[in-house]
Amino acid sequence: MKKLGMLLCLAIVLSGCGGDDQKKMGQEYKFSRTNVKDENRIGNNKNYGDFGYMRHMSGDKVKTGNAVPYLNRQKLADMISDMVLQLPDIKDVGTLVTDEEVLIGYKTTNKDRNAAADQVKMTAFSVVPRYYHVYVTDEKGMINKIEQYQALNNDTEDIEGIIDRLIQEMKKAPQGKKWNYGENENGEMNGETNPMRGEMEGK
């Protein structure tokens, strides 16, 4: 009889824990769904600062065909503009992020245009994937011009030509220092053809 009573007590405790676990799981599921719906609302996303970690060891099954992780270009453009605006002598900035380029127009009171360009460019390079190229300009009217391209996407006809022509116009302004012997000011390698655009088409 004593054993039966203990078993009943244990069953009640476990059922209570189970209820708490289900309730907790429901909250986590609800929270997860909220994150998906509000992925563009940084202020409401409580997991925005979470780290990402994955460990692979020798002998683990290798997954093939992994897609390139989704990159929220709107958030990235917002982050870059905010960071650039905190630089000395930068008064206005507009940033466009494509699948492989960051295009930044800005206004500066720094008389050393090349130094300002280098600061702006390196700020962007500090947060984007390494395959990205960064182009900057302080030419008058270029912030508004870059802004006009925000409605374009990878499905736009001749998008590569359109962006390339904008880049050529931006490169009339100082671009800062060269990265190194093998890369120019914008992070392009000598004779480079960037394969990422084809892989990122439509994403």
TrEMBL record:
Residues 181-192 have a biased composition (Low complexity). InterPro entries: Spore_lipoprot_YhcN/YlaJ-like. It comes from the Bacteria. Residues 177-203 are annotated as: Disordered. This is Sporulation protein. It comes from Fictibacillus arsenicus.
